[in-house]
Amino acid sequence: MLVCLAHAAWVLPRSILLTHRSSIRGLRRDEDGWQLWSAARGWHAVQLRPDSLALPLIVVLRYRVQGEWRVRSACVPRDAQAADVHRRLRVRLKFSRRRWLAPG
After folding, report:
1. Considering the domain 24-104, what is its CATH architecture?
2. CB-based contacts of 45-52 (< 8 A; 24+ apart in sequence)
């Protein structure tokens, strides 16, 4: 029970409430590739993984931070963005030719 509570104390601020400095709060795509934003690291390059999922209700981004071996995930529900922004994200994830390339 103690391990479960400790895990909840770790996960809630980082992945659910997004109140921790390391929580991912932004996503952008530019000429340098995909980047995520957190208060702890600012904008940092990531490589999206092929098992990322783009559905009408939710986008699950699977990514690897440059220089790390571990694959992480971030969920973007439909109501987190304007409808047209969420649709554009889904379309870009499905049809971009360079989406899985490592950051340059």
Report:
1. Roll (2.30)
2. 45/103, 46/103, 47/100, 47/101, 47/102, 47/103, 48/93, 48/99, 48/100, 49/100, 50/100, 52/93
pTM assigned to the model: 0.78
Instruction: Identify which of 40, 48, 39, 98 has the alpha carbon closest to the alpha carbon of residue 74.
Output: 48
CA distance 100 to 48: 5
pLDDT on residue 102:
60
- DSSP assignment, residue 103? P
